[in-house]
Write the structure tokens for this entry.
Amino acid sequence: MNRSHLRWVLIGATAAAIGAGAALGTRVLTNLADATLPDARGISNFNRPGTITLLASDGQVIQKLGPATREKLKAGEMPLLVQRAFIAAEDRRFFQHDGVDGWGVARALITNIREGSVREGASTITQQLARTVFLSQDRTITRKLKEAALALKLERQLSKQQILEQYLNYVYLGSGAYGIADAAWIYFSKTPNELTLDQAALIAGLPPAPSVYSPLVNPELARQRRAVVLERMQQSGFISAAEANTAKQVPLNLKPSTPKYFLSLAPYFTNWVAQELPKLLSTEQLEVGGLKIRTSLNLAWQREAREVIKTNTYADLEGSIVSIEPGTGLVRVMIGGTDFYKSQFNRSTQALRSPGSTFKLFPYAAAVDRGVKPEDTFIDKQRCWKGYCPKNFGGKYFGSISLADALKNSLNTVAVQLQDKVGFDAIIETANGFDIGTKRPLGKFYPMAIGAYEQTVLEMTAAYAAVTNRGVYVKPTPFQEILGPEGEVIWSRRVDGDRGRRALDSDVADAMNWMLQRVVDGGTGIAAKLADRPVAGKTGTSEGARDLWFIGSIPQLTTGIWFGYDNNRETKSNSGQAAWAWNQYMTKIKGGLPVETFPPKPVLNREFKPPGKEKPKKKARSAPYQGYDYRPDPYNGDQPWDDRPYYPPQRFEPEPYRPERGQDVPRPNNDPAPAEWAAPQPIDEPPPTPAPAPEPEVEEGPRNWLKPQIQNR
């Protein structure tokens, strides 16, 4: 008895040991196999190759590019009707198997042999999800084995409900629909919870051959496939025979819609983003996709800008608006034309247009930088320079006039005199500091001073933004942050972006801002004047009014506006149209910006340096001071700020007035200017007869950027 009992104990112990060993071995093998497979718990972050999501500065989606699921349902939001339709159509034993369904494989094999063709698949929903997320669509034994292994791992790491919801968010359903939410919208203009039984069954029938069964491609095949799904739902007990028969008789009732986020909310801007992105990321990073790009765009301002362009254009007149934050270079608004879907040509970044008098920023800044003061006087009269005879707008000449009033009234003869006074090299050097003339060289021709060389709206607006930023130029950018497929930061403007460079000394920039404010307060830019805050800006009109410009700033934002025809014909208008459009735009958006002031007019004690003499050496061109403080972006973790901008304490004492011709005249007050400044009397002597202007040469072959396009104003 004892011996028999011992024998059974030994047998039991041996069996237990073998079982434990087998279980342990299975666990070890499973762990080893799992180690070679991807972690399924990160499946919610899945992105197909080449997908890019563009976000506005506040996180709103602007556009989704590539084969992206444009809208996903969150956990618990998937309608029960949709779940049942897909389970009946694709995996009737979904809740019974562990990822691979042996019974399903056998059933599909028998069905296909009976029908003589492949009529039923054997892949479970779990296997389809594993294939979609982790594998290719190759039909090989190796891929099928990996698919089965991954399906088993998915079942161990996720619940059945999680697997089903993720599958319904990612499955391709034809016509560019990735996921049930996309399909409901593309085929029926509905959300998933609005789908009826017949509509849910139609969509559930698409996965085996989405391009073939799509109701937008083959409506009759889609109807037949819908009937198959309804029969399976009845067999599974999800619906009654009466419900199935009724649903089969319902017409398709398609109501197609464009996929959400397929079209950009700011197409000119996002096209520019696409052009700039390869400068920051490698080809491999772009191909892998899964990128989220937080851009600089302010969508609310963008909408207002679009309306302003529509309001101020007619027929085929085109317009452009660019808004730049001076201290950061972030492009907050970009409108490149009246209708992107009629013309994708971006007039903000691609159109080379004559800037007219907005170019006068550079000769004036070069002159002040080399010792000319805003109070210095010039003689405004008709004259010629080696056959070039510029004319003032309207043929009006003021005689003796201060530099500040010459800019206020946009006098062409004074701008060319400045060019004579400081030299071509000084102006070209100043413009180059603002990245003007670095891509397309500026030639040493007299018309340069009044805008003969074509520029883009973006380039000119960025230059004015640098003056607003007290002389610090920051390269314009549409990017704030770029996140990789795992949500990791792969580029950040604060870390990787342009740090800015000093293009102009701060006192010179302050003097320019003071003069540009006078242009708006009572000069050619008066249409842009805002009642509640200072504005600094400049108008510009090219020859024949073919280009109408206004570029204006408040301390926190610089905006350039342009109007013109693509075929370069005359507009029959003037730059006041652009200044008034600027006013309309800023009136709509200024409420979100606190009232700030520009620095006061500085005391300038520089000794004039004529051409040929070496300028005093400047300090390092780095830019430790980035201009005004800006309100922190709530999405980037900035610390709170003081609403009042800080300027280092200085004394701005009136300096002795030194007229150029030695007149014994007391220096006028800084602001406001006396009446004799605002409206100087014309000189009495008759103007000399101007020499005829040379005929413009007709260019052949590639464009020679050193040849100017002559302007009137």
Confidence is low (pLDDT under 50) at residues 623-707, 709-713. The first helix runs from residue 2 to 35. The radius of gyration is 35 Å. DSSP finds 23 helices and 14 strands in the chain.
